[in-house]
Structure formats: C-alpha cells, structure tokens
Specification:
Layout (H helix, E strand, L loop, with lengths): L11 E7 L7 H12 L3 E7 L5 H10 L4 E4 L13 E2 L1 H6 L4 E5 L2 E5 L1 H12 L8 E5 L3 H10 L5 E6 L2 H14 L4 E5 L2 H8 L4 E4 L24 E4 L8 H8 L3 E3 L1 H17 L5 H14 L1
Parallel strand pairs: 1-2, 1-3, 4-6, 7-8, 7-10, 8-9, 10-11, 11-12
Antiparallel strand pairs: 3-5, 5-6
Helix pairs in contact: 1-10, 4-5, 4-9, 9-10
C-alpha cells in the first residue's frame, strides 16, 4: 500500500543536474513513483552553470546525494568526475545516470537502452535499415551506439561537421558500423533522407519554449520514414506534427524518458516503479502547461 512520505531528517535525495533543467520531467515521474512505493526519498532538479560543475559534484558527494541524472550539456563532461563507468557507458563516452555508493560515483547510460526499447515497442524495425540521426551530442552518441550493430547504414548530421565525423570515427572503432558524418545542411539532408527509413532528432530544436521550430522542413519527409524525436516537452513537437501530417509512423521522447527513468529508478532503489503512473503523471503535467 502506498502512503504519503513526509520530508524529515531521514529523507534521502535523488536529483538531476543540467543547464537548463526547468523543463525536466524527471522530478514529476520519480517523485510520483517514490511516493507510490512509500519510499522516504525526494527527487529535485539543480540548474548547474558550466563553471559550477566541479563544485557541484563535490557538493553532491558531500551531501550524500544517493543518485543523480545528468542532462544537457554535461553528459560527456561529467565523466572525468566519476570513479567508474559500466561497459556500455564507457564505450559510448556519455552518461546520464550516476549512483553514489559512499562517495564512489558510478556512471551508466540508460538513454541508450531506453531509446532502443522505445523504438522496438513502437514497432520500428531497426535491423537492416538506414538511419539518419540529427545531432552529435550525448544523446546522439547513446542512440547511435545502441543501434550501430542493427542498422544497415547510419548518417550522423550535425551543424559542426567535425563533431559528426568524430562520432562516426568512434563508432567504427567500437563496431563494424557503416556510418558517415556529415554537415547539417538542407542539401545534404534532402539527399540522405530520400532513401532513409528511420529519422531520429537528438537536437534541442523544437523543445519548449521554442515549440514551433523544427530541425528540418516538412518537405524533406516522406511517408516511409519512422520519425523519432527524443524531445518530450512538448509531447508532440513540430517535427512530429509534420511527420504525422504526411503519414509517417512516429515516436515521441516520452517513451525514452520513461524507459530510461525506470532503469535508473531500479538501479538506485532496487524497487520496480509503477510505469503507468510515471507516464500518466508526466502527461498530466505537460497537458496542464
């Protein structure tokens, strides 16, 4: 039976760090799950400016924060402050979840597994497909690494072409991946999307409050594309609206958010959260805004 947990001297803390973090739904879903299980924990969000990261990590350890999530722009920068990475996170070179074991910080990447689970659950067949990924940051790393062995071809398109090429180089060092890094231009995207079967946006373009922006024009899409936008605020981005208008199958970032959140919650607490409750609370919150 669930009951309301009152914050007291025994309450332990989980959190998310990033810049910005006010858009994050992690506190909403984690606090709902913690309360449902009657666990004496609270989950909060900390906006950490880039020049504060070193001090913030020392503070989290000193305060005994039990675990924390990491979001933009620290998924890669955080690694140098950690004591250990799990094998997948080490290969990816980006993490989004940390567990604090008596001051010993362990990093994992639950984004990767969460993204793949979301795609498969939505009926997206990855094996043998051509995948175009927009962006080359932490989320792009996680998703490209988890899909590399299944996809037939992968295009990483980024505004800074050098970062896309570096990501592809790392992919090829870790997998037998057929991948190319290219600049993020309409001409290149038009050419690459013509025969692509999966499009994944990992950029923040279209995220709240810029909800009317899309990372690519509507005319570059075609009905045979499966379009996945990792953004979950708003629930339906401009890109997903464009995709639905022309008949594409789509997936929002909500499924990835919930899936990665469940993995983090179970790792931190050794408890299984109520998945439907977590999802419902996020949707209710976003619909109220």
């Amino acid at each position: 039976m669930s009951f309301k947990t009152n914050i007291n001297g025994h309450t332990k803390v989980f959190c998310i760090i990033g810049h910005p973090v006010e858009h994050s739904m992690s506190p909403v879903m984690h606090n709902a799950a913690l309360k449902d299980l009657g666990l004496n924990f609270v989950y909060v969000a900390y906006d950490i400016k880039p020049n504060q990261l070193n001090g913030a990590i020392k503070g989290l350890k000193a305060l005994g924060i039990m675990g924390f999530n990491v979001t933009i722009p620290y998924k890669e920068r955080i690694i140098k402050y950690l004591d250990k990475l799990d094998p997948l996170a080490k290969r990816i070179g980006a993490i989004n979840t940390v567990k604090n074991e008596n001051g010993f910080l362990i990093g994992r990447n639950t984004d990767a597994l969460g993204a793949k689970k979301g795609l498969l659950d939505a009926g997206c067949k990855i094996q043998g497909k051509k995948v175009v990924i927009l962006g080359a940051g932490g989320a792009a790393k996680a998703i490209s690494y988890i899909l590399a062995e299944d996809a037939n071809k992968m295009i990483i398109a980024n505004r800074t072409e050098k970062r896309a090429i570096e990501l592809v180089k790392n992919l090829k060092q870790n997998f037998k991946a057929n991948a190319e890094g290219k600049s993020y231009s309409e001409k290149i995207l038009r050419e690459e999307l013509r025969d692509a079967e999966i499009l994944i946006n990992t950029t923040p373009i279209g995220m709240y409050p810029n909800i009317n922006q899309s990372p690519i024009p509507k005319e570059l899409l075609h009905p045979e594309l499966f379009v996945f936008d990792v953004i979950y605020n708003p629930l339906e981005t401009q890109l997903l609206r464009y995709a639905k208008d022309i008949g594409c199958n789509t997936l929002s970032g909500l499924e990835m958010l919930i899936s990665q959140g469940i993995l983090a919650f179970e790792w931190w607490t050794n408890k299984k959260p109520n998945t439907n409750l977590m999802k419902r609370k996020v949707i209710e919150y976003l619909e109220m805004k």
